[in-house]
Design goal:
The structure is a homodimer. By secondary structure, chain A is mostly helical. Chain A contains 6 helices and 3 strands, in the order αααβααββα. The structure holds a DNA duplex.
Chain lengths: 120, 120
DNA sequence: TTAACAGTTAAACAATTATTTAATCGTTGA
DNA sequence: TCAACGATTAAATAATTGTTTAACTGTTAA
């Protein structure tokens, strides 16, 4: 079996690696997840919602943002499956989704904080 | 000691949580890291460089992009401390940085792929 | 020393994305 | 039912970001 070759052959079996490379779809899926957390405000909101369930007004107050701006971010986080919501009377409560994905992301965030932001 | 209060009191000690919330700087640092991986092309390049050391031309060929575009992304990944480079003759080789941060990110990517992209 | 090759940089453009303001929707209690 | 409140949506703007093209830098070998 022959493979289309790369411009340079550095003799480390790049072609074999290319056989194992995940599908485009996988990279799109994962980069979408990382994009969610790639915004400072959204990361902060997600961190908060990993630790408590809150209504929009309180989230807005905690992160010092207007409620439309927060709503916008909550919408994205929910579309991405990172948070869930429930209405109770006039208020809508948000919290981190109870999934393997969010548990992994949360523990990763805490680990990265320890590694990259000690004593903060 | 008294705390400034939130608009609504849902009786779950949000104020105590606010005492533990990481500094702005920490969220900025982490969201910068996630932004790096929030771009599909950059995530693919980082994945490749976690598995092999490669020159720019080969990376460009592997991800089907122009070398200026790849160079642009490599520059960002290097500025973020995710990859390192060394020149050898006419070529510059890149690979994932050998740090706790990159090991964590790499293992996280592989875990997320398993959870979110099974069989791909 | 100069031509060819590998890589980077810069400027311009295109596209995406975050935030604001204003309007709207849904729920509750007067 | 209607006023007040919480939340969402829409449109507009501002800002950021990715890609292209072209010019440029560094290295090697003829």
């Amino acid at each position: 079996m022959t493979y289309p070759s790369l411009p340079h052959d550095h003799g480390q079996n790049e072609m074999k690696l290319l056989e194992r490379i995940p599908a485009d779809e996988s990279f799109i899926t994962l980069s979408d997840i990382f994009s969610q957390l790639g915004d400072e405000s959204r990361l902060r909101i997600f961190w908060i919602l990993c630790h408590c369930e809150e209504c929009v007004i309180n989230i807005s107050s905690m992160v010092n943002m207007s409620s439309p701006a927060v709503s916008h971010h909550l919408r994205q986080l929910r579309a991405g499956g990172l948070i869930t919501s429930r209405r109770n009377g006039k208020e809508v409560y948000y919290k981190a989704a109870d999934t393997e994905k969010t548990r992994l992301l949360h523990s990763m965030i805490e680990s990265l904080m320890e590694i990259e932001c000690p004593e903060k």
